[in-house]
Request: fold
Amino acid sequence: MIFVKTQLPIIVTFVSAFIVVASYYLDIQAWKTFAAELLRWNVVLAAFALALGIGGIVRLHWGRIARRERTAPYSIICLLSLALFLVVGLAQTTRGKAYQWLWDYILLPVQATSYATTFFFITSAAYRAFRIRNSYTVVLMVSAILMMLRVGFFASVLPFTPAVSAWVWDIPTTAGMRAVTIGAALSLVGNSFRIIVGLERGHLGGGE
Amino acid sequence: MLEKLNNLDVRILYVLMVIAATFPLLWPMGLPLPISEQVKASYNAIETNIKPNDLVFFGIDFEPTQEAELWPQVLAVGRHVASKGARMVLVNMIAGGFRYEERIEDVLIKQFNMKYGVNLLSLPFSAGREAAFQSIVADFKGLYKVDYHGKTLTDFPLWNEIKSAKDFKMYVQIADAPDWWLRPMSQVKGLLLWNGTVASGASTMAPLYQSGQMCGFIIGMSGGAEYEFLTKRPGPAAAAMDGQSMGHALIILFVILGNIGYQMTKRKEAEAKKAR
Reply:
């Protein structure tokens, strides 16, 4: 049982990763074909993971309803919506009129509205956070204002702003993001290597 | 009096923001909109590189949450690519993208007389994100068997003309910022990469444009609005830009007022301390 739960997944991970990574370095057509096939399996597995996600949502919200938690009414709405979209989607596919109606008149307005509320949070946060308390907040406030002045009407009436904000964007912002991206990529490589050779076992349900 | 500005009731702020953003939508003000160099360069990347009959991947990867920022980009850039006479293959790797794929397909067929299956194809959602893109690179024809409408792909002449991802000239990706499409797609030799994204995630993609990995890069609603003006078809983004400018003006005003209130409060507290 331990072999199936821990050693077998490590062996499968190692062999699959080796085949895919090696396909970049080996010019053997059969090898490349098999690596491409493995990538297609990955797409199929990702589709199954979506189904697994549905199971996770049902389990989470069903538990809340069963325990009659304060948020249980929202969980009921969530599960009913899930069932509605699932049933209509399976019956008609995403191209069906009823599914598209649900999408256009329920999902789209709900998602757009929830995203639009960030407009108020950002306004409130900007009003409270951009107070000149120290040199850092000055930098934060000036950068934010320059970014707002970068586009639209202000860029035309304040001709210096596009150039100044472009400098802020192109030099310090992009340099910072580049450092973050390179750091994240290096850690991704390191972590992937640890998973491939079986040093990192968190995804198997246990510790390292 | 001025100290009150330090702690305004946020509800006042919200009401003023709603007015500032909706007023120009109801009564357009026609504020000037300068075109940035970046948007011009991105427009020119399509204008100069895409020739009639070139194959262009058109990726639509966003959910309805980003519709306000990204749908205008899809419309403006999609129309531009179609106007160049390119053959377009629509793809989506985010479950919510299918509805926009349908919409742009409709626009391209009605406004540009594109013939479905001859110079336009819509591919269905594929799960796996980066793995799915990697699969496109490794074996594009093996990944898809049917189109978005559930029809067998080998029935379409356009599909039969394509051998692999290498046949494509450009990959235009309108997405909510992630770079998981870029890593695989940049492996396709000779494929030009072009990206439109949301304002909040633009900093992730900016270094990739700056380094030359992408030939085009437009950001958020303003990028979409500027692109609409360049293609001489002002649309939803241009209409919303007055609202965005007014909203920004109000935020800046409140930041200034908040700081005046904060400094006055601080001064008053210091004086009170001194007096004690």
In short: Chain A has two domains: 6-118, 132-189. The mean pLDDT of chain A is 89.
